[in-house]
Amino acid sequence: MAEIKLGDKLVGDGHPCYVIAEIGINHNGEIDIAKKLIEVAATAECSAIKFQKRTVNVVYSAEELARPRESPFGTTNADLKNGLEFGQEEYQEIDLYCKERKIAWFASCWDEASVDFIDRFDVPCYKIASASLTDDRLLRHIRSKGRPVVLSTGMSTLEQVDHAVDVLGKKDLVILHTTSTYPALYEELNLRVIPVLKQRYAVPVGYSGHETGLSTSIASVAMGACVVERHITLDRSMWGSDQAASVEPQGFMRLVRDIRLVETAMGDGNKRVVEREVPNMKKLRRVDSAGSGK
Question: For 6-50, how does the pLDDT look when each residue is reduced to its tens digit (9 = 90+)?
Fold first, then answer.
């Protein structure tokens, strides 16, 4: 049975689902919003929080950064992208606050310098975003750090995932099935891919959801997902490109609660008469003999 360790938690079949609350860029460049979201995730008893880290002038071309784009930060795409990036001071504050709330955090790093930046902190793993799955140089740089890797597979064919797994190796690897539309339509989710990935790669497999509801993320656990990741927000009507595909505080409470209920309900697969059925069996069965009433 494939399992790995993320921080102090074992992840894989037979272990509690590792629930990731992705703050991403939903903090809108404000550390106070980030801390409120950390508080919500910790209260909901999530396993970890995830951010996104980019070196803006490396990830985006000069042409793209110069493109006009209205935002609270200015009038160009560069103003927006730079306004959403946290630096050393903010991440030190995040690291301290997460330790106080006893919840792990890590990040999706979109370039090598961002990997080196996040490596200053004792994160349990690195996340590879779907957009980076075909970036072999980045994948190798992440692997060089010696930490577990969580790989999202949106926008990718099985052949592309095969190649990424060849580059990364299967040691300390988690693969997440996902659909990279925001928000995703239910007919796009294709949850039956989860057992396909489990059989194909023999590593822990999870689900990263971008749909508007909770039911399919909860269903993914019954399909075999041992990790569930959802974006978290204080309010889906807030400014920001990811807010509409995110889950509000009460929703995250229900998400974690219902994942735990599904895990309990899955049982061990051995058919038996449970103790609380016995009185009903005695009261309701007309015949109670082998082959005719049981």
Answer: 999 999 999 999 999 999 999 999 999 999 999 999 999 999 999
Which whole-number Å values give the CA distances from 13 to 4, 198, 205, in the listed order? 10, 10, 9
HSE of 79 in the Cβ direction (CA atoms, 13 Å)?
A: 10
Q: What is the pLDDT of residues 154-169, one digit of tens each?
A: 999 999 999 999 999 9
Q: Are strands 205-209 and 173-178 parallel, antiparallel or unpaired?
A: parallel
Q: What angle do CA 207, 191, 243 make, to 5 degrees?
A: 50
Domains defined for the chain, CATH in brackets: 3-284 (3.20.20.70)
Q: Annotate 11-35 with three-state secondary structure.
A: EECCCCCEEEEEEECCCCCCHHHHH
Alpha-carbon span 294 to 284, nearest angstrom: 11
Q: Which residues pair with 227 in a beta bridge?
A: 18
Handedness of CA 255, 257, 263, 265 (dihedral sign): negative
Q: Which pTM value belongs to this model? A: 0.94
Cβ partners under 8 Å of residue 146, min gap 6: none
